[in-house]
Amino acid sequence: MLRGTYARARVVVVRGTVARTMMWIGAVGALAGLPIPSLTGLGRGALIGAALFVVGLAVGLLQRRRWFAARAAAATKAAFAVTLEPPHETRQRLARGHALWLLIGISATAALGVLAGPAAALGVLGYGLGVQAAVLRLARWERREEKLLWARTDDGRLFGRRASVGDFVTTGPAAGQVRTVVHG
Fold first, then answer.
1. What is the value of pTM for the model shown?
2. What is d(CA 4, CA 98) in angstroms, rounded to the nearest whole number?
C-alpha cells in the first residue's frame, strides 16, 4: 500500500495515446512505401502488408486482454491522497518522454517502407488499430461499470513488464473531467 500523495493517469488515455502513435507511425511508413518501387514490388508488398495488418490487428486487440480484465476487476477505490492527472497532461508527458522513440519508430518504418513497400508499416498500423479497439472496449467497460480506471503515472505505457505495473484504482465517472489545478 502506498502512502502519501502520488499521481494517477487514466489507463484509457495512456493506452489510447500509444495506440494513436502506433497508427501514425504505421501510416507514415505505409505512405513512404507507396510511391517508390521496393524490393517486394507494390502488388506483393500490399498483399503481404494486408496479411500483416490483419495479424497486427488481432495481436493488438487480444494482447493482455485477460490481464487488463483481471486488473480492472481487482481495482480498489482511489485513496483521498491520489492526484489525478488531466488527459491532456498525460498525452503531453508521454509525447515528451518518448520523443526519441517516436522519431526512431517513424524513421524505421519509413525506411522499411522504402525498402520493402508498405508491408511492415501496415503491420504496425494494424497493431495500433487493434490496441485502439481494445481501448474502446475498456472505455465501454468503464461506462457500463460507471468507474474510471487509473494507473500510476510512473508505470509508463502499460506495455512493459507486467511486474513493473502497479495496481489500478477506480474513481467515479466525474473524475474524468479533471482539470489542471496548478498552472506553472
1. 0.84
2. 28
CA–CA separation, 21 and 16 (whole Å)? 8
pLDDT in tens, 39-67: 777 677 778 889 999 999 999 999 888 98
